[in-house]
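Entry 14. Structure prediction run on the chain below.
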Amino acid sequence: MSLDVYRANDPDKLLCSLDEQCLTELEKCIDDLARKTGIRIGQYEDTQLYPDHQIIFLSAFDMSNLSNVSSDVKNFVALVLKCHSNNETLIFIGD
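Output returned:
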C-alpha cells in the first residue's frame, strides 16, 4: 500500500508514491504538521499540502541527518522543496 503524490495543477501525473517505510521515516514531519495545522497525511487519507504547510512539514525534517534516510525520502523532500519554491500545492491520494 502506498500514498500517491501529485501536483494540484497536474493531477494526472504521478510524482511519487510513498510506501509504509517512507511514511515511517517521515513520521516526525507528519506528526508535527498534524499537531500544528490539523492536516493529516496517511496511507488511507486524501489531502492537499499547500506551500504554507509544506514549510511546516519540512521544518521538522532533520536535513543534517540525510545519510540515515532512504533515497525515496530524500527524493520526496527534494520534491516538496521544489514545489514550495514554485508555490505549488501537492495532492496526496491514499489507498
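The domain at 2-93 is CATH 3.40.1760.20 (Hypothetical protein yfbM fold).
Filed with the rest of this week's runs.
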